[in-house]
Amino acid sequence: MDFHPSRHTLLLVGSANGEFTLWEIGLRERLVSKPFKIWDMQACSAQFQSVLAKDSSMPINRVTWSPDGDLIGVAFAKHLIHLYAYQQPNEARQVLEIEAHSGGVNDIAFSRPNKQLCVVTCGDDKLIRVWDMHGQKIYSFEGHEAPVYSICPHHKETIQFIFSTSIDGKIKAWLYDNAGSRVDYDAPGKWCTTMLYSADGTRLFSCGTSKEGDSHLVEWNESEGSIKRTYSGFRKKASGVVQGVVQFDTAQNHILAAGEDNQIKFWDVDNTNMLTFIDADGGLPGLPRLRFNKEGNLLAVTTVDNGFKILANSDGLRSLRAFGNRPFEAFRSPYEASAMKVSGAPVVAGISPNIGRMDNLDRNSPAKPSPILNGADPASRSIDIKPRISEEKPDKAKPWELMEVLNPQQFRVATLPETPDQTSKVVRLLYTNSGVGLLALGSNAIQRLWKWNRNEQNPSGKATASVVPQHWQPNSGLVMANDIGETPPEESVPCIALSKNDSYVMSACGGKVSLFNMMTFKVMTTFMPPPPASTFLAFHPQDNNIIAIGMEDSTIHIYNVRVDEVKIRLKGHQKRITGLAFSNSLHILVSSGADAQLCVW
């Protein structure tokens, strides 16, 4: 299973009958279902064709999203990988079929060496291979003496590399060249091991099982190739009883989770003792597979009846409730969150969602905090903690202080490199939320993006006037050009908004509102054709699919991108809308208008 990198409730599931499905957890809907079929039998090797003739079953070993969420990679237990292009909300188009390995393809991942998107695979033939987006093999890494079980592409600063593990317990690392493996470590247990980096890319973990059935979860000191800490909490197995390999995942840079003993076990990354374990109301297999979403507030776990359950902490529950169609129960006792369960045939079909009570889960972590760790009584904290606005005494409040800067030495100025449309003036300017880029909307309705690179002069890679940023464009050469409609540009009111995770930008310049993908600059969709024209835009801070749009005619539309529908129209202003701001903690929207009024909704 794998959650979408930016649409945090979208789950990709591969199953043993070769079918992959795509689920919108918030709506409990299956959006896509693709049974296995070979696209071009003529292109397949004679060896593969004879394997298929003997046994036509095609289990999926691994499914994964590309970093921008535009592509789906599927690795099969025999020879093949498939790549699909995902188009919201429910289309998956065939892109590439590659006979990647002789035997099973055990893992698939995307990587970006030299800023070029590639697919990395490994297989029973002891090889790791790198493919470009035309299906051409760029690299083939040899050196493992046993089938390669898993891969973990990563980068540190500008160095791109791949960790790989084989079933003889060897860990190797490869640069994108033909110079062979750079390291040779032994994985604990010396059998099947998976490696993962924390979300911020700074810490490396591995989890695996020995042939005797003992499981190991460790953190590595990468530079030395030594084990930094070993996490306890796995049960010693009776010798000779090996059900399979423990699966694990990590969330929010501070939680580890692994499936064992029909349970999910949780650790804090800085503490080797297990935090807690839950059985998720039962129905889990001996070694459940599990996957966090990228925000770490939803956890998908497989069930014995060929289905999966979704566990949520309170942030996850809030994101699910934003869909507003069916209740996701949050129970009243502390730390309880809810589960959605989907089950069916060998593929998760025939939904029978039932809301199940989950074991105690805390608001901010997928695991129950131990009183010792937090130094407080856990019973005193409830799942639905409402943020309080402190009512400070007037004398404590700082007045708005204006500061005049008179000394020219206090200024730094950087002029951004020119772009082809230099004649247009800048009408809107935004920093990206991560602080590494600058986005400008020009009077010609074209958006440009500049990014600061991480280097010796600017080690943080954040915006600074000491270093000039680079004008950035995808390899395709696409530009983000808005629809301009009938209104002359000088008369239109330009507006622009950026999603919280910097994945999407939407803007309008008198015409329709366009939603762009920030990685590819592709137009994802357009909506709201004038009249009236849009004059201000705002993303909902917790759900990129909910957008507030202020209009020329003084109304505000709350629009759902996913279903392409205006959900609510707000009327209260007399003139065009000039500003919109959501408050996370107060659950309100504040609007301003050219009528000099502020409204709270």
From TrEMBL:
WD repeats lie at residues 98-133, 246-277, 570-601. It holds the Pfam family WD40. InterPro entries: Quino_amine_DH_bsu, Topless_fam, WD40/YVTN_repeat-like_dom_sf, WD40_repeat_CS, WD40_repeat_dom_sf, WD40_rpt. The keyword Transport does not apply. It comes from the Eukaryota. The keyword Repeat applies. It comes from Aegilops tauschii subsp. strangulata (Goatgrass). This is Anaphase-promoting complex subunit 4 WD40 domain-containing protein. GO terms for biological process: regulation of DNA-templated transcription. Keywords: Repeat, WD repeat. Gene3D superfamilies: YVTN repeat-like/Quinoprotein amine dehydrogenase. Residues 361-380 are annotated as: Disordered.
